[in-house]
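Please fill in the sequence for the structure shown.

STRUCTURE ENCODING:
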């Protein structure tokens, strides 16, 4: 299918493109991604198009949110396919900058010399305390990298709204807090998790797995389903639900990083679900199937 999608690689090109759209009276939506576009990303574009006439998708594997030893180098980079898939769902532009364009030549040189992207060499925003929990506990520098790149993208694209997936539930909360704390005036829209028909949450990292590993990865959504079931049947003991989730994942087998019931607003662990509306509680999981680290979550309501 032919599309009018424009591929932009520099900040100047983005500014020009967005200025022209705004001069036509259009609202601008941004969908930040790291590429390897799949139907989850496409659903974010579709949601953005409900509230904005021009949707820009950024495709950038952000080095400052990866720690040494994580999959920065191996992360799938499939720009041609990405452009096609995003054009199919009506995105107006893809912004796919190089690291040098995004962070400057000095960062490229520091990465070459140190093998990491030293965020502390920059003036950068710091994520709030909710970022210290869960993913942040396992990946201490991750959310500072996320808020830094999202802040930069907001400055470059200057969108009216931005869409983020509930797939990365903690990331969505951290970004909402940044926008509120820093008075950024950008509408943040959280979008539901897109799943394969068998329940697996769609992720760019799913392509690391063969069919046997993929079958084991189904234990994450199965554990979330069981957590909901226990809650609906009247169980308010979060330790019991957490333990049941762990057993399901461990049996797959997969290695649990965490499997918890948390307050959906504060992200703090909940000791009991007594008197709590299921919509205010979230089951969250991170687990490894061999070397592939997966995250998933679901509301209990
Ligand atoms: P990523 O490219 O993995 O950094 O993701 C870019 C955006 O897409 C983030 O806001 C993710 O939460 C969102 N996303 C990724 N996978 C899904 C999914 N299966 N359903 C909905 N949103 C998703």
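FILLED IN BY: designer on duty
SEQUENCE:
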């Amino acid at each position: 299918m032919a599309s009018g999608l424009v591929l932009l690689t520099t900040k100047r090109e983005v500014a020009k493109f967005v200025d022209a759209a705004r001069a036509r009276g259009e609202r601008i939506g941004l969908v930040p991604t790291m590429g390897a576009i799949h139907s989850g990303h496409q659903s974010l574009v579709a949601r953005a198009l409900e509230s904005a006439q021009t949707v820009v998708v950024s495709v950038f594997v952000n080095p400052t949110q990866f720690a040494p030893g994580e999959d920065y180098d191996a992360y799938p980079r499939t720009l041609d396919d990405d452009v096609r898939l995003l054009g199919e769902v009506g995105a107006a532009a893809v912004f796919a900058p190089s690291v040098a364009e995004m962070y400057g030549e000095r960062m490229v040189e520091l990465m070459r010399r140190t093998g990491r992207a030293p965020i502390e060499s920059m003036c950068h925003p710091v994520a709030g305390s909710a970022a210290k929990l869960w993913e942040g506990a396992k990946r201490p520098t991750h959310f500072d990298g996320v808020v830094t790149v999202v802040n930069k993208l907001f400055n470059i694209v200057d969108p009216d709204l931005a869409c983020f997936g509930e797939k990365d539930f903690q990331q969505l909360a951290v970004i909402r807090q940044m926008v509120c704390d820093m008075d950024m005036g950008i509408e943040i829209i959280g979008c539901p998790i897109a799943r394969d028909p068998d329940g697996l949450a769609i992720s760019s990292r799913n392509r690391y797995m063969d069919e046997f590993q993929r079958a084991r990865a189904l234990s994450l959504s199965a554990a979330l389903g069981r957590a909901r079931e226990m809650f609906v049947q009247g169980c308010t003991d979060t330790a019991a639900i957490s333990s049941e989730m762990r057993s399901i994942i461990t049996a797959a087998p997969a290695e649990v990083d965490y499997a918890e019931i948390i307050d959906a607003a504060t992200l703090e662990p909940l000791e009991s679900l007594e008197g709590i509306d299921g919509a205010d509680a979230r089951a969250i999981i991170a687990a490894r199937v061999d070397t592939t680290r997966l995250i998933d979550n679901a509301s209990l309501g």
